[in-house]
């Protein structure tokens, strides 16, 4: 490449760099702000943040918050048990209650329908603006149950006593949201009262008894083997009912339970052959995997139940000895259309006299020829017998086993508190907009004398939801620095809250990913290959850990590399652990400055000032009269009110006042620029903005709102561009990683492809050394055309006196590009390429830049991605025997990488060409690249050989920026080079995941059996024939005399 061009490019780069920096510095006011903080350098105190202290304080606050919720439900348990004790069952009882579906409904004559009644509802902000009744609860009864069933009417009648407690609880702790009682009879009482709406089929399928919180509170952790009869007699409808029964049993298993499914005829078939002889955790992925295999069962041959029972007992015993399972209750579920004998020899060998494994036989079909044998099995092994003759009977019959398994807990009268993992409120009619929450629940027992001695009766479960936003509010964000964050996990290692958890398919959509509630910490902190951090937290340890991390920002397209220090500890009284991550360097320092309250408030109340929406400067939720206050009003009340009741973060407020005073001169400076007509005449600069470490921001518009090229910037629409519950704005984060005094430029990637602006921002440091905290960031939004014109003007310059340049970017034989440090194009002659990745446009040049080390490719992993799959192409049936065949790579063809950033426009690609018809989005794991420039390159030249034709290029850094000018000669056709793509590829290792059980901490309490339990209540016992009863009694006699 000729020397002239190299020197010319250098000239253009420095001309453009100088021009754009002076515009950015002038309009952002960066030098003025730097000076203002510098003046105060001597009067402020810089401190290193003690991460351990921060995490311990956070844990204490969380513990306190959770304790309050726990007290609220304990009061409900006491009230419910007392009310039930006083109530006499009355099968004739008539009682008009408020049915959640029927309230305010009228018949054709305009009269209230039965169980409807007039029910006052008012919109309430605290409940997402839903219309609720704060003095009464409503009762929901599943569609498949009779509203006036005497058992339900009696339960509803005595549980009215909870209304008063619901109201008291809400007054004591106004941060409570839904409180409820789920009855063992199937009804669900919910406070505050709210109207429920059926789905399009007129059905409300919600049954509180198969919700996780109910099952977890009612039973102890369990190991379960499900035996399904697939002999010839099970053909047709029976097999369909059997599948549904197994599926319903799976619904009742949770993350603390373990299971396997065996199909038997004359042979034993593990439904998943790769998992023979063991049990796996009943998490969402494993259950879904087994469900797929259920559809492949077909009936033939004869059924040898004895062998199947032997296998089931053997697995339970072996697995229990490994210590990996629930190490608590054990059960065998038997789904069959009959048993020709009693198999007492098998039970005598494996289960008597202790009867540690309960047997739950489900007789499929209408015939009851073999019912007696199956009833006997249940009664002889502390189980329960059910007959299921239609699909409609499945749910109700499967539920019964839970109440049998809960007996020891009831007799022990142990009110264990349970906490669920993070989930989204699924009562769609209830909460608009998805918000993650955890539920704390506690069982309610009958305290009547006869029930305790008999078989222990579970009345139901009470619970309350805790939105995880409540947790976010107590995180001291100002102490965590620009890249720092807090996170919490459950005893199973699942994320409760973490800034990288993405539970939805796409921003703005309400669709949840199927496995959002079981994302493991190791899937977001994936650089920790040995799970050190995860396992220490699961085992409730307190300690520290550090590692290099790569965090993606800007919809996953850009990369920040940093070194994180993690601090973690347990949250007492809960199964959760909490951690804090601080990034090394500026992220470990905080400084304190002081100003008078008067000066601070005066500057804080200026119209151009805003405070971070989701940060808690003051707690305005605690008292009703504070709810309508903005954070700034709350701060004012706190500082000037007489005896204000409001609780605030004194330290944060002190610093936010300080920042308000230091940044105040910028307002006058910006106003001066805006008023000066000779400045910014072509309206190229549209907005100036700043943010400080305390979440304070100021903005100034240089053009009227309507003329803004990007209306979303700095509004709540622009999630990554504002201070948020778990992150600093993107422009702030990226500026912090630039060399101080230089600007970072970028075109925002918008969902609406908003390519019409360029953002420039720079960080303001307090001191000149490496330990300096970054105190603020300032920047501007420019119109893209304005920015590009500056570039083309600079690239026409030359040293010729007559102004006639021999070479410029206008020439046909060269192409000029301006790209950023992640390889995205800001300026090019072909306007449609703006914002695209350079490797897609100039593949040969990008390949060479990677080769010579000017840019680096970094591989990243996303374990919450979504891929397109052709419906009906699932072939996970065969067992992969060779370990290496397990990791198979699927071509990008199939992958739709929706990492919520909707990559490029191939969202709209018509994928139905394969003839398979429909495609669907399924959760998957992907690997994808990000590209970063090496800071050391100031200028580089290179030659590329394109099929014998040599093409040359120059890359030159633009001074004081993150930009590079790339000039390529145009004389060769290099289009045959494969594009350097940012598309992800899917990684497949389903079976490795199934086999590989990560560390988890078992729940503390376990109630597998109780010596006083009456096992005669075993389902249909009334119908036992005389000889059977005799056989059973003699058997029991021998058991108890042994």
TrEMBL record:
Q: Which positions are tagged coiled coil?
A: 55-90
Top-rank taxon = Eukaryota
User: VWFA domain spans which residues?
Assistant: 223-405
Give the UniProt subcellular location, in the record's own words.
Membrane
Q: Which UniProt keywords apply?
A: Calcium, Calcium channel, Calcium transport, Coiled coil, Disulfide bond, Glycoprotein, Ion channel, Ion transport, Membrane, Metal-binding, Signal, Transmembrane, Transmembrane helix, Transport, Voltage-gated channel
Primary subcellular site in the record, as a coarse category: membrane
Q: Which GO terms describe its cellular component?
A: voltage-gated calcium channel complex
Gene3D superfamilies reported in the protein's UniProt record: PAS domain, von Willebrand factor, type A domain
Provide the GO MF annotations for this entry. metal ion binding; voltage-gated calcium channel activity
Keyword Metal-binding (UniProt): yes
Write down the membrane topology: Single-pass type I membrane protein
Provide the family line.
Belongs to the calcium channel subunit alpha-2/delta family.
| Name of the molecule in the record | Calcium channel, voltage dependent, alpha2/delta subunit 3
